[in-house]
C-alpha cells in the first residue's frame, strides 16, 4: 500500500552514514514512473522497496548544470547549460548570495567548494564511480574540446556527467583526484566491507546505461530499457553490501526531464540565477523527474509529494554529515529530506 506523506519535517534519527547517488538521464516523471514505463525493475520492483519522491525536479538544462547543482549548489551559466563543449576555465568576476560565483565558464576556481571538499575536510571518505572512464580522474585538457561528448564503441564515458572534473579544488590535486574519481569497476571491491565503503558513493553509468543514448553505438537499445538492465545489475550490489544494510541511503534520480522545449518547470522557489536568467533555458528549472530513495530508514512502497530538487539532495546529504550548506542548498525555504523520506519509524 502506498502511503503519501506531504511536508518535510526535521531529520529523523538515526541518520544514513553511507550515501549512494545514481544519476540517470533525460526522462520525465510520467515516462519513468507511469504504468507504461519501459523500466519495470525501477518503476515497480525498486519502487516497492523504498519511497518515491513524486515532486522531485531538475535544476536546469542541459545535463552538466544539474550535476554541478548536486555537488556544489552552483546555478547554471551559459557554458554549463551548453554542456561545456570546450573545457574552458570559469572566469569569476565576483560572488553573490548564496555563495554563487559570478561569471561564465566550465572549470570553477579552487575557491568554489564542493561536497567532496567538505567531506574531505571533515574526515569523511568519498568516491565518484564512472562507468567506462578507465583512467582515474579523466578529463580534457584545460581549453581543449571535450572529445567525450559523443559515445564511441568501447568508450561511452561522458565528462559532462562527472561533475567532480569541473572544480580546480579537485582536479588540481592529481594524486587525490585519481584516488577519489575512479572507474565503476572498483565499486564491487570497495563494497565488500563497511570500512572500505565511502561515506559518499556517486555513480554515473555510461551514455548507454544511463538512458541518454537510444539506440547506443554498441547496438543496444539504450533509453530506459538499457538503464533498467544496468540498475538490475548494480543496485543489488549496493543494497546487499554491509554498509548499506547498516546505515545506507541510495538515491536514484535523473539529471533533467526530457528537454527545455518539453519541460523546464521548477519547484522550491527556484528563480533567475546570477549567470543565467532562465536556468532551464526556456524556463526556471529542469523539469519534473521524480526520485527514488532506498534505505533501512525508509518504509517500502511509500511516496512523498514534498517538492524537492537537486539542491535539496545536496542539502539532504550535508544534513547527514553535519556540513554547512553550499550555494543554493542554503536557499531559504528549501525542503530538506525529513521524516517523509526517513519514514521507517513514522
UniProtKB/TrEMBL annotation:
The keyword tRNA processing does not apply. The keyword Hydrolase applies. One of its GO terms (biological process) is phospholipid catabolic process. It holds the Pfam family Phosphoesterase. Keywords: Hydrolase, Virulence. Gene3D superfamilies: Alkaline Phosphatase, subunit A. GO terms for molecular function: hydrolase activity, acting on ester bonds. InterPro entries: Alkaline_phosphatase_core_sf, Phosphoesterase. PANTHER family: ACID PHOSPHATASE PHOA (AFU_ORTHOLOGUE AFUA_1G03570), NON-SPECIFIC PHOSPHOLIPASE C4-RELATED. This is Phosphoesterase.
Amino acid at each position: 500500500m502506498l502511503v503519501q506523506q506531504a511536508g518535510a519535517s526535521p531529520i529523523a534519527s538515526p541518520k544514513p552514514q553511507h550515501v549512494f547517488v545514481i544519476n540517470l538521464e533525460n526522462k520525465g516523471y510520467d515516462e519513468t514512473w507511469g504504468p507504461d514505463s519501459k523500466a519495470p525493475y525501477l518503476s515497480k520492483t525498486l519502487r516497492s522497496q523504498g519511497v518515491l519522491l513524486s515532486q522531485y525536479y531538475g535544476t536546469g538544462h542541459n545535463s552538466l548544470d544539474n550535476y554541478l547543482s548536486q555537488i556544489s549548489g552552483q546555478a547554471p551559466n551559459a557554458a554549463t547549460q551548453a554542456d561545456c563543449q570546450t573545457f574552458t576555465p570559469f572566469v569569476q568576476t565576483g560572488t553573490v548570495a548564496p555563495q554563487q560565483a559570478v561569471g561564465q565558464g566550465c572549470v570553477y576556481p579552487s575557491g568554489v567548494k564542493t561536497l567532496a571538499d567538505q567531506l574531505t575536510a571533515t574526515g569523511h571518505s568519498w568516491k565518484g564511480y564512472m562507468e567506462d572512464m578507465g583512467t582515474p580522474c579523466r578529463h580534457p585538457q584545460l581549453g581543449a574540446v571535450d572529445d567525450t561528448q559523443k559515445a564511441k564503441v568501447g568508450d561511452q564515458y561522458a565528462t559532462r556527467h562527472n561533475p567532480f572534473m569541473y572544480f580546480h579544488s579537485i582536479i588540481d590535486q592529481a594524486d587525490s583526484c585519481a584516488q577519489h574519481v575512479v572507474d565503476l569497476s572498483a565499486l564491487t571491491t570497495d563494497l565488500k566491507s563497511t570500512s572500505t565503503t565511502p561515506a559518499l558513493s556517486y555513480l554515473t553509468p555510461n551514455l548507454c546505461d544511463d538512458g541518454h543514448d537510444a539506440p547506443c553505438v554498441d547496438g543496444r537499445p539504450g533509453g530506459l530499457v538499457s538503464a533498467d538492465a544496468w540498475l538490475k545489475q548494480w543496485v543489488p550490489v549496493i543494497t546487499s553490501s554491509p554498509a548499506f544494510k547498516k546505515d545506507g541511503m541510495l538515491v536514484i534520480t535523473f539529471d533533467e526531464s526530457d528537454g527545455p522545449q518539453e519541460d523546464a518547470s521548477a519547484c522550491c522557489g527556484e528563480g533567475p540565477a546570477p549567470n543565467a536568467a532562465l536556468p532551464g533555458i526556456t524556463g526556471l528549472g529542469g523539469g519534473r523527474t521524480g526520485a527514488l530513495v532506498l534505505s533501512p530508514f525508509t518504509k517500502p512502497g511509500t511516496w512523498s509529494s514534498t517538492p524537492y530538487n537537486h539542491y535539496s539532495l545536496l542539502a539532504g546529504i550535508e544534513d547527514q554529515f553535519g556540513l554547512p550548506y553550499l550555494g543554493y542548498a542554503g536557499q531559504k525555504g528549501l525542503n530538506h529530506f525529513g521524516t517523509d523520506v526517513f519514514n521507517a519509524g513514522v
